[in-house]
Design goal:
Elements (H helix, E strand, L loop, with lengths): L1 H5 L1 H9 L4 H10 L6 E4 L2 H17 L4 E3 L3 H4 L11 E6 L5 H12 L3 E6 L5 H5 L2 E4 L12 H17 L3 H8 L1 H8 L5 H5 L7 E5 L4 H15 L3 E5 H4 L13 E4 L6 H13 L4 E4 L17 H4 L1 H14 L18
Parallel strand pairs: 1-2, 1-3, 3-4, 4-5, 6-7, 6-8, 8-9
Helix pairs in contact: 2-8, 2-10, 3-8, 4-8, 4-12, 8-9, 12-16
């Protein structure tokens, strides 16, 4: 896991340039119109899908829905998706439910796109368009570089598709920022988790996928129940579960949702919560300085990953092979 985290700036470089398959797939999407988009993925790939949803809805104005593969595999119902764009995101591309959902969407008239690390996988073969994330082999069960590259591929695709020059320019600078993020020490946050019965993470907008992804890594690598919530959703009930024994990590990118995150942070701090924050003038964790708000949530993954991996080893846990988990998860 540690070695693969360190590979991220290098393997992300080609995708950040938005050339090759990124350019080809985005050109194909630009030639078409879609009534809506459906995104399909589980686990870390599902979190990349959350990130992609915000990019598509904010840059292209298309409504995005999350697919429920069990509708196809368990309930034997084929969704009506004629004319839509169906995007499956998967590291291995081998989970039967994701493959079945992609096949059903294609049969139902959707244009299907697979964002995968293995472009010869069943999910890739089931789709009409394939966008390889080019992360290379990943051996640790806890995915890191494939997750980052799924986020980067999503941003590169939308930057080209939407002709968003600011996003494309920021992606060009992203490998340098990712390299800088490897030096950020977030151990103050993970050390605070040593006696915690659970942990909370919060953010909003482009940062929500990152929040949920880091929560997953805490659960699978440190065996710690961790909950990632939108800063808005946190106020609708889960806020009551936060106490001085449940640390909170808040991630803030500098865009129109920043004020709402700042307000929540202020409320939690006044209530005596154990709070760690990244981004903005009130951030408590080391940070590079704010840059493009759609790219910063990608960069925030790296110091979190490094801190979690180190904390796992400090506790005598094996972050490369968490108990009960396998590298390829197959569900129906």
């Amino acid at each position: 896991m540690a070695r693969e985290i360190m590979e991220v700036p290098h393997v992300a470089g080609r995708l950040c340039r938005g050339v090759g398959e990124v350019e080809r797939v985005s050109a194909e999407l630009s030639r078409r119109t879609f009534p809506f988009v459906v995104v399909c993925g589980r686990g870390s790939s599902g979190h990349a899908g959350v990130y992609l949803r915000y990019l598509i809805e904010t840059r292209l104005g298309l409504a995005v829905s999350a697919s429920a593969p069990s509708v196809v595999t368990s309930y034997d119902r084929v969704p009506q998706v004629a004319g839509a764009l169906f995007i499956v995101i998967s590291q291995s591309g081998r989970s039967p439910d994701l493959v079945a959902a992609t096949q059903a969407a294609r049969a139902g008239g959707a244009l299907t796109l697979a964002i995968v690390n293995d472009d010869a996988s069943p999910a890739a073969c089931a789709a009409e368009l394939v966008l390889p994330i080019c992360a290379g082999p990943e051996h640790a069960v806890a995915a890191t570089k494939t997750v980052v590259n799924s986020f980067v591929a999503s941003a590169a695709l939308v930057a080209r598709w939407a002709e968003d020059r600011a996003l494309a320019d920021s992606l060009a600078a992203l490998p340098t920022r990712l390299a800088g993020a490897l030096a950020l020490d977030w151990s103050a946050w993970t050390s605070d988790l040593s006696q915690a019965p659970a942990a909370f993470l919060t953010g909003r907008g482009h940062g929500l996928g990152t929040v949920r992804e880091i929560a997953l890594k805490l659960s699978e690598t440190l065996r710690l129940p961790a909950l990632g919530y939108s800063a808005a959703e946190l106020r609708h009930g889960p806020r009551a579960s936060i106490s001085n024994v449940t640390p909170v990590l808040a991630l803030r990118q500098a865009d129109s949702v920043a004020e709402g995150i700042d307000d929540l942070v202020q409320d939690l701090r006044q209530a005596g919560a154990r709070l760690h924050t990244c981004g903005g003038p009130a951030g408590t964790l080391p940070w590079l300085s704010d840059s493009h708000p759609a790219c910063d949530p990608i960069v925030m993954l790296l110091p979190a990953y490094r801190a979690i991996e180190r904390e796992a080893r400090r506790r005598g846990l094996d972050p490369d092979a968490p108990t009960g988990l396998t590298k390829v998860t197959e569900t129906l």
